[in-house]
Amino acid sequence: MRKIALFAAASAAALTLAACSEATEDAADATVENAAADTEANMEAAGDAVEGAADATAEAADDAAAEVEADVQDETTAEAKAD
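Above: the chain's sequence. Below: its structure in token form.
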């Protein structure tokens, strides 16, 4: 009789652990998926920021070149930009 009760208790404990393990696996899968989605969103945002910075740098370089050209050729920066 003790063996049956012990076996029943061990079986119940095993089922409980198996259920927790499956729930833990599901939670881990969800965490990985969320982390991947967050990483993708952050990479897109970083790419947009880099693109914006590159555009701003190119515009600043064009403005600086126009100022130098205007100084060298004795013209306004608007005239130098038009060239």
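Helices lie at 2-73, 77-82.
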